[in-house]
Amino acid sequence: MVSGVSLGKIIVTGAGLGGLLTSYILLKKGFKVELLEEHKSIGLPRHCSGLVSDYVAGFFGGLVREHVMNRFTEYSVKMIEDSRFREALTLSFRKPVYLVDRVGFEKDLCEILTSLGGEVSTKTVVTDVNIRENSLTTSRGSRYYDLVVISEGATRRLVRSLNLCSVSRYLIGPQALFFVNKSPETVEVVVDPLLGSEGFGWVIPVDEKQVIIGLTTTSKKSGLLLKYLAKKVFSSLLSYRVKEFFGGLIPIDRPCEKIIGKNYLIVGDAASITKPVSRGGIYSLIEEVAALRDSLSGDSLNQNLLMSRYRKLLNTLRIQYFIYEAILSVGGYYKLVRSATKSGLREVKILDYDKLVPDPETLALLASPVIGIGR
Ligand SMILES: Cc1cc2nc3c(=O)[nH]c(=O)nc-3n(C[C@H](O)[C@H](O)[C@H](O)COP(=O)(O)OP(=O)(O)OC[C@H]3O[C@@H](n4cnc5c(N)ncnc54)[C@H](O)[C@@H]3O)c2cc1C
Predict the structure, then answer these.
(1) Which pLDDT tens digit goes with each residue over 98-151?
(2) Fewer CB under 10 Å: which end of the chain, C or N?
(3) Of all protein residues, whose CA lies closest to atom 37 belonging to ligand 1?
(4) In this predicted model, which residue has the larger pLDDT, 223 or 239?
């Protein structure tokens, strides 16, 4: 085994999707895992919308099936102009995109972990990790470990205190679930200059009577922007009622270059691996977890193999960073959509939702000087 790390006791810090999936993979391979979560319930507080590609849903397989709430083969992109919604263009996908009830899914996953022999401690905050001494401190005492998995999500308090990768920039993502008299047919993506060059909004039909409205922005007035967006969305609806507010932070630093050391592994948002254009994080998370699964053999972990698989993911994300920076260089999402529609573009066909691969015809148009991405 090349540069193998021998694993005895593994502690996973944070029971979000990253921590749960990592624990699942490790338990399935026969390792001893303790999972620590600061909140009292798994899956809560809720922050994610739960849109995942066909590829990601396939990775979860039967585990996710009963938590799929809706599926879409296209998104409608709308722009707010003269304070009204205007249909701009359609994003159509070769394979469906699924809306997953993450809270239910995570609760089920946690039960499976327990049945596999995993030890799950809620209401346990990890306050400090001492990498030199293989120990960590929690609100309920200290622990020793052979490997600590840092899957603390976007807060990145441990990653920051350990100086493991750069941590400074976030998008804020407020959302709300509404009861309505009739939901839209499909997901609506909303571009508006008020959301800032890096921001956009969304309306996701959960079912016929419930929608999630949310947005990402760097503005500190994200709550007001959510109210503003909801008002625009509902101006044509007869009635609506807020069921729940939720949301969270989305890390937007460049991904950590190194996710593994002698006795630690960084997983998911803690490593800032969200897709730069859409800011979805689950795709990168499962790629990282799959790399971990394939790097485990016997009782050890092949670090070189894990890092080479991780670098492939970073390359995929680098291409998307290039597109993202091109979008910002033309003034952001709103300006891009406006100039795309002015040039007559009505449909963007996406061949791969996660890798953001458009069909060749769309690619040629996006690269044309009329729209400006290629400039
Ligand atoms: C508004 C919004 C919408 C999103 N929508 C999508 C989407 O549609 N599709 C998609 O792919 N991605 C989406 N994402 C991103 C996605 O939610 C994340 O990429 C994903 O949740 C990352 O999983 P994670 O396990 O790394 O972190 P998290 O899910 O955040 O889990 C981290 C866990 O660690 C716990 N924790 C943190 N610190 C400690 C500590 N010190 N001690 C103990 N426990 C700790 C937290 O309580 C939490 O349970 C969205 C994010 C936001 C904010």
Answers:
(1) 999 999 999 999 999 999 999 999 999 999 999 999 999 999 999 999 999 999
(2) C
(3) 152
(4) 223
Within the chain, which residue ranges are assigned CATH 3.30.9.90? Answer: 70-98+169-250
Ligand 1 contact, 260 CB (< 6 A): no
Q: 361: CA distance to ligand 1 center in Å? A: 35
In whole angstroms, what is the distance from residue 123 CA to residue 129 CA? 17
110: which residues sit within 8 A by CB, 6+ positions away?
15, 20, 42, 43, 120
CB of 51 closer than 6 A to ligand 1? Answer: yes
SS3 218: coil
Do 184 and 70 meet the contact criterion of CB atoms below 8 Å apart?
Answer: no
Question: May I ask the CATH class of domain 70-98+169-250?
Answer: alpha beta
Q: Where in the chain are all domains bearing CATH 3.50.50.60?
A: 4-49+102-168+252-323
* 16 Cα: distance to centroid of ligand 1 (angstroms): 6
State the chain's maximal CA–CA distance in angstroms.
64
251 lines ligand 1 (CB under 6 A): no
Query: For residue 261, what pLDDT band results from cuts at 50, 70 and 90?
Result: very high
Q: Give pLDDT tens digits for 177-186.
A: 999 988 999 9
Residue whose C-alpha is closest to residue 153's, from 253, 13, 306? 13
Q: How many residues does the chain have?
A: 375
301 lines ligand 1 (CB under 6 A): no
Calculate how far, in angstroms, residue 17's C-alpha sits from the geometric centre of ligand 1.
7
pLDDT digits (tens, 9 = 90+) for 157-196: 999 999 998 888 999 999 999 999 889 999 999 999 999 9
User: Hey, which CATH number is domain 4-49+102-168+252-323, 1.10.730.10, 3.50.50.60, 3.20.20.70, 3.40.50.300?
Assistant: 3.50.50.60
Query: For ligand 1, is residue 248 a contact (CB within 6 Å)?
Result: yes
Q: How many CB atoms lie within 10 A of CB 27?
A: 20
Report the residue among 24, 25, 120, 152 best suited for mutation to probe ligand 1: largest number of ligand atoms under 8 A from its CB: 152
User: Does residue 110's CB lie within 6 angstroms of at least one atom of ligand 1?
Assistant: no
